[in-house]
Amino acid sequence: MTLFIDLTLNGLSYGAIYAAVALGLVLIWRATRVINFAQGALATLTTYVAASLLDRSINSWVAFAAALVAGLVFGAVTERVFMRPLYGKPELNPVVVTIGLLILVESVAGAIWGSTDRGIAPPGGVSQSGIILGHTYLDFSAFDIFILGSVIVLMVLMLVLFRWTSLGLKMRASAFAPEVARLLGVRVGRILTVGWALATLAGALAGMLVAPLVFLSPNMMDPMLVYGFAAAVLGGLDSPVGALVGGILSGLGISYIGGYLGSSMETVGAALLLIAVLSIRPEGLFAAAKARRV
Amino acid sequence: MLEISELTVSYGPVAALSDVSFKAEEGSITAVLGANGAGKTTLLRALTGLVPVKKGSARWAGTELLGHRTEELVRLGVAHVPEGRGVVTELTVDENLRLGALWRKRAPDHGQLIEEVYGLFPALAERRRRPAATLSGGERQMLVIGRALVARPRLLLLDEPSLGLAPLVTLELMKTVRELTRRDGLTLLLVEQNAKSALSIADEAVVLNIGRVVLSGDPQTLAADDQLRHSYLGF
Amino acid sequence: MSLIEHRLPGAKSLERLRSQPLVWHLLLGVLAAAVLYLLTSSVSFYDNTIIAEIAWYAIAIAGLSVLTGGSGQISLGHGAFMAVGAYGAGLMMEHFRLPLVVPILVGIAAAALLGTVVGLPATRLRGPYLAGVTLALALAVQDLPTKFSSLFNGDSGIIVNQATPPGGVNPQRWLAWISLLAAILTMVVLANFMKSRFGRALKAVRDDDIAAQAAGLNPNRMRVLAFAVSAAAAGLAGGLEALWGGIVSPNSFSLFLSIQLLAGMVIGGAGTLIGAWWGALALVYVPQWTNSITSHLSSASTVTANLQNAVFGVLIIVIMMAAPSGIQGWLRAGYRRLRRRPSSLASALSPPLDLSSTSTPPERTSP
Ligand SMILES: Nc1ncnc2c1ncn2[C@@H]1O[C@H](COP(=O)(O)OP(=O)(O)O)[C@@H](O)[C@H]1O
Ligand SMILES: [Mg+2]
User: Fold this and answer.
1) Would the pLDDT of A168 be above 70?
2) Which of A182, A184, A186 has the most B C-beta neighbours within 10 Å, making it the best mutation to test the interface with B?
3) Are A82 and C320 in contact (CB under 8 A)?
4) Which residue's CA is minimally distant from atom 1 of ligand 1?
5) C254 touches chain A (CB under 8 A)
6) By C-alpha distance, which of A215, A243, A197 is closest to A47?
7) What domain count does chain B have?
8) pTM score
9) I need a labelling partner for B125 at 20 to 30 A (CA). Which of A110, A160, C93, C114 fits?
10) Domains in chain A, ordered, with CATH?
């Protein structure tokens, strides 16, 4: 029973991280119909930015915020420099460019900071040791709570942005009907840049959250990207809510499979689950209802 | 006044508009007619920068429209309702209307303008929180026209508003369009394949055929010309 | 004038040949085999192993290209099918003494089987959803050898004996021959497949699912078939890779391999078989060039260690931006431009007869 609880808690915190990655992927997919495979690599880069600041004994919260800001900047630059020239070209091309970017960014990170693993402490010295509840020790730390909390905050902020601000309305209009948006005066190009910036910020958060759990290395985010992508696909690529649910479900599923069947079954189980779910719902759990044709 | 002269557009080697010239008086309704493929949609898209123009000019109230980016035209008082209605089906009715006010940063009156649209089209008011995907064809047309009004244009470009609507609904819609243009003193370019209903409310008419203006003039005279009706207007 | 009359009959029979895909493709194949035979006999043993490597890359990329170009689906997990082909062939070679074709065919069959199994649910999936499934598959297949360690010998992998060449032939040259023969056969088969009724139907399905359905085609069956054919090619590539590397281990089939294959396809030009060779050349030679550069460089070791991948990444990005239809698309466009504006020399030499305008239908290079 404690194993089950531990696996559940562990699955929740990893699931939250997958959800953040998935959210970043969904935001970009909705706006530009591109799967950004460079998202993980960019997040690694932002985490290195924070690590360099920490090396200079800068306050860990400042470093944390700097990583997020770096995410905004890297996302905007990626859209402007690498994506903008490719809109309207064969749709596979921007996707392949993000793959090229993934390889490039990871090797640049390796060239600058080396390929050896390094540890990153949670911001503000938040504890990573489990908590004792009554007489049972739970493999759930203050940092795990921080992970869940910050992903929830991210999701709520995004929800507020999309639902209740005019920037959010512009973003949704630009994603769904770019031409109509332009005719109504929305500067769609700028909005896309903002979208990429926000999406990369979500990735950067995931990077800062996962670094203390694993180690920081140039390809730290590779598995996060794969599971985050699976989570986004599972939830439905057009649905931010789907990203959250898909992330949590993936986290739990992978945690249970690893805990009960052995860690080498994690990827196999994840693949089978993904295939099974998509066989029933080919566009994910939260596929949008088809618009009425008139 | 809207003054279009020698407007020429081509898609690759294929000319879609050749030397199109005509004028539309301020506050008037000009019907732009012609068969499928005549170049009507291309004309409107050229005016709002959605297709590149080879040569020509389009002056509206002393300003050149061509050469501006699409996003800027709403700031020059131009509203273009594209063919196929342009409802953003993923947004609610209310959000669609709010889109119309976005370009005026702090439009203090946008709530009031939106309420006015709901007053004009009560069917929309009942459905304001629903996704626009659930609207019928006629309701969608009301929605996009309403949204264009929220943008407070002076020049309105409507591309085939009657497309796919039942005759009765079209009749209603045309009446509303005429009332609105008169009320606000709008200048309207009404692109229609359904020549009969467009002529019934127009002050002027222009007939396009294979990218050229073949006729322009008074709607009553055009409607009475049997030969013309048969060859270009199909009724 | 006499030149024209003299050329016309030859041109006509060439036209007739091209209208019969199988004969035409076989002819091209035999021609290629002859040229390559001369090539393999005249280069060093080391270069022969490089040739073998290019051949199996080209096979795998061509398979992927048929999937993407033919049916518009993309796979991020073709390394998985290669792994299945390699393990299938490797296990057969380890446990039985059979002529080489048998284990290779078993590998192909195993990959085609997996391709069909994955292809079945994949028929309902579009674009990134399919990419997600194949990506997950690539990861999963990599972990299976560790899970079933007794069969696959875990991370250390299984040793594959070198193919024993018949009397006197050098093993590297023999390997190059086998791989090239397999590659040429694959190209002939795939070219025929794409030109066949089936291939055309596949493209119809890709371009307009509903219209194709109305025309009596079964889009789902088509997609499964495309997936199986594509996986079979990858399985063959895997079997050859096993021979080439002498060992089958999970490390050879990392996710990176799948990504490389996809990149190779797009670099060469998705949907074209010749493009597969450009892609294979890029995958083999770019790392070699960067390695030779870094060996002369005296910068920090972290830089040299990462230069190869950095160059690879830059190459992908630059080609996608500069030549959106890949190298082959770029060459084709260049060729067409040359033809449209014939130089005075060319127009003086060639009769005013347009042979090539009727030859190949314009091909779409992207889904
Ligand atoms: N995007 C396009 N690319 C190529 N040709 C086009 C395009 N859009 C329209 N055309 C062609 O331009 C001509 C005019 O089309 P259009 O303006 O849509 O006519 P209408 O609106 O009067 O039916 C037609 O021959 C049409 O085929
Ligand atoms: Mg039209």
Assistant:
1) yes
2) A184
3) no
4) B11
5) no
6) A215
7) 2
8) 0.84
9) A160
10) 2-280 (1.10.3470)
